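Fold this complex.
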Amino acid sequence: MRIVLTAGAAPRLESAKDFKRFSIALEATLTAERSAAVAPVAELEDADHAWVRPDAIRAISPFAGQPDWENGFAAMVGFAVKHGWVDTQGRIRAHIETIEALPPVDADAFRQAMRRFASGVCIVAAGDGEARCGMTVSAFSSVSAEPPIVLVCLNRRAAAHACVTSAPSFSINILRADQTEEAMLFAGQRVRHGAARFDHDWEAGDHGAPLLKTALQSLTCTSLAQHEAGSHTVLIGRVVSVTAGSPDAALVNYDGALGRFDRAS
Ligand SMILES: Cc1cc2nc3c(=O)[nH]c(=O)nc-3n(C[C@H](O)[C@H](O)[C@H](O)COP(=O)(O)O)c2cc1C
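Structure:
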């Protein structure tokens, strides 16, 4: 197995079931700050070696807890003990190898590419009363139908980020074609900010998140998991209720502009 550490991403375990190899792969861009780069999983011994905490390996192994994997992992640790590669704290010594930085992609070229993906637009909202918060999001996707799971990607710099990601539940309110103004309001593009944006069109939902009564459809989720990726948090929610909804014309985000999608048009 190999722990892969790349810029802007959580540690990843590659070849998790290969118990014959154990190393840390450090992206070349991170080698100047080795100690900080390995810190999520290990403590540095010297430039080429680190002591890896077994709990950190379990935390990133997709197979942790499965008997086959646990047996293989225990055998690997046993082998390391024999060679003196496990210290008194149970940490396992790993060689640090440097891997090529991923090929750079121009940020503007990436944004331009993503503009070609048409998506709906929704407002993610959470909180109660004066603590209500929300933001316009197009990075919303279904993950699983049974059980019903969705995800949204939220910029950590957005004012609503802390409030939405720390709330026990949040709502996703899919906007109608005529709700460009709502989209702009919750994108921080208007003078009103914060809870003042929740007017008479909003109501308190049964599960503790505000619902936009005029939305095409609203879903309420309890927070299931979060994953940091680059500048954003991927927030995963288990859907606990959906409103009745309607198939009216939807607001669509495409090529840097908001438009209308109508099945009849
Ligand atoms: C159409 C549209 C789609 C957006 N999609 C996202 C998104 O998926 N994720 C995100 O973090 N921000 C997205 N934003 C930007 C946020 O809405 C915006 O950064 C945030 O509301 C800023 O809030 P603040 O100025 O109060 O911090 C989108 C904005 C618009 C207009």
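Residues 121, 135-139, 153-155, 158-159, 183, 186-188, 193, 232, 253 surround flavin mononucleotide (CB under 6 Å).
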